[in-house]
Structures are given as structure tokens and as C-alpha cells.
Specification:
Elements: E1 4-7, E2 10-16, H1 18-35, E3 41-47, H2 51-60, E4 66-76, E5 83-88, E6 98-106, H3 110-120, E7 126-134, E8 147-151, E9 157-158, E10 174-177
Parallel strand pairs: 3-4, 3-6, 6-7, 7-8
Antiparallel strand pairs: 1-2, 2-10, 4-5, 9-10
The protein binds guanosine-5'-monophosphate.
């Protein structure tokens, strides 16, 4: 039978094996290395979900590169403008540098749109998106990812950094929700 995991109240079946993921990550690292040859590149990992992908991508990147981490936070501001988003922990100086945002998954693309809006205020030379997973059917965003590991259907996935209510991030493979 197909490999399955149970997390909280849900069951998930194996969707992408470790070897398939790691081979694809190597390809992406190679493409980035070629495209950013002789350029000051910053890999900007969006926490928490992209931690495992960013780690393998950085290890496979055969050249000098900065690796930095941010968290996206939404909070209700004190003014009546409502929801405000900010990037927490951005310590890297991005001015005149080439930034590649490293994401676990681009679904609607709205998170990435906000991240790019906020990053532009730091005046980088360029910004591109590298995501392990992309759900083209769900995408509504303005910025399409240039580097994509796998196009996947519009179904909930966990593993390799991605969680279901904080469980599943440690799985080496990616699993898809089994509908009840
Ligand atoms: P967006 O819709 O803004 O592109 O996606 C925002 C965030 O939703 C992603 O960064 C990810 O944290 C979460 N997300 C979207 N689809 C999935 C999924 O299939 N599985 C998990 N675990 N998280 C998802």
C-alpha cells in the first residue's frame, strides 16, 4: 500500500519522494548559479515553511551567496487602516543586491505580492521568486514565480517544511491530504 502519515485528525498519502525533491532542488540551485554568476545574490528564505528547502538549495549552490531569513507577520495596527504586514528579522542590506525569495509554496500568490511590495522599499537591484511548489490553478497574484520546483494540483500538502497545524514539517517527503 502507498505510504501514509497521520497528523492530528487527518491522513496524508505520499506525493513526492525525497529523491525526486532533492534532485529537483539541485536543478534549481544550478539554474540560480548560472543566472546569477558574478552577481551579488541574496537567498531570502521565508520562514517557517521554506527552512528545509532553503537549506538544501543553499547547500547545492556552488558559489558565494548570502542566505537570509524573514518572517511575514500580519497584525492589526493601532490606526483604523486595519491589517498591516511587515517583514520580521530582515537584517541583510539589500540595496543594489539581487534577491531571490525562497518560498515553500505559492498558492494564491498574495503572500508573495506583499513580500515583494515590502522588499521593494529596501531598493534591491532585482527580485525573483524561487518556490518549491506552485499551484497554478489557485494563483491570483501579480508576480509569477520564475523558478518552480513542481507545479502541483490545488490540494493541501505537508512535509519538507510544510505543516498542518505545526506538524509534518520534519517529513523528508511531501504528502497530499486524503479527502475524508
Ligand atoms: P498564498 O496563498 O499567499 O500564496 O500562500 C500563503 C501560504 O499558505 C504559504 O506560504 C503556505 O504557508 C500556506 N499554504 C498554501 N498552500 C498550502 C498547502 O498546500 N500546504 C501547506 N502546508 N501550506 C500551504
Amino acid at each position: 500500500m502507498e505510504k501514509q502519515v497521520a497528523l492530528h485528525d487527518k491522513k496524508f498519502s505520499l506525493y513526492l519522494e525525497e529523491e525526486i525533491i532533492l534532485n529537483r532542488v539541485k536543478d534549481l540551485a544550478f539554474s540560480l548559479r548560472q543566472d546569477y554568476n558574478q552577481k551579488e545574490l541574496v537567498l531570502l528564505c521565508i520562514l517557517n515553511g521554506a527552512f528545509m528547502f532553503a537549506s538544501d538549495l543553499a547547500k547545492d549552490f556552488d558559489g558565494p551567496v548570502e542566505v537570509s531569513f524573514v518572517k511575514v507577520s500580519s497584525y492589526v495596527g493601532t490606526e483604523s487602516t486595519g491589517k498591516v504586514d511587515e517583514l520580521i528579522g530582515l537584517t541583510a542590506n539589500l540595496k543594489n543586491k539581487h534577491v531571490v525569495i525562497v518560498e515553500d509554496i505559492v498558492d494564491t500568490g498574495l503572500t508573495i505580492d506583499k513580500v515583494i511590495f515590502l522588499l521593494n522599499q529596501k531598493h534591491p537591484e532585482s527580485i525573483e521568486i524561487c518556490t518549491l511548489l506552485y499551484k497554478p490553478e489557485a494563483f491570483l497574484g501579480k508576480h509569477r514565480p520564475k523558478y518552480v520546483g513542481f507545479d502541483i494540483p490545488n490540494k493541501f500538502v505537508v512535509g519538507y517544511g510544510l505543516d498542518y497545524n505545526e506538524l509534518g514539517r520534519n517529513l523528508k517527503e511531501i504528502y497530499q491530504l486524503i479527502p475524508e
